[in-house]
Write a structure and sequence with these properties.
The chain is an alpha+beta fold and 79 residues long. 18% of the residues lie in helices and 23% in strands. It has one domain.
């Protein structure tokens, strides 16, 4: 649901005069670069600090964008 509501809020709507809900509320054009980079359930390699040995990169699935931690290109990954 996190993924869907972010994509919805950054997608223009005809009913809002082809503005995004975010733009209608805030008055600024949003940065949509994060939603065009990945799709839901795309495979992702990430570093796992708790794993020991080689390789310490683990594969997971992209599930959402993190809004409260990091920058806009910080993701939630299902491991």
């Amino acid at each position: 649901m996190d993924y869907l509501y972010i994509v919805f809020n950054l997608t223009s709507l005809k009913s809002l005069g082809f503005q995004t809900p975010y733009e209608s509320l805030e008055g600024q054009t949003p940065d949509v670069s994060m939603i065009i980079r990945l799709k839901f359930w795309d495979p992702i390699l990430f570093k796992c600090d708790k794993s020991r040995g080689f390789p310490n990169k683990v594969e997971g699935q992209f599930v959402a964008f993190s809004e409260s931690v990091g920058h806009k290109m910080t993701y939630k990954v299902l491991h």
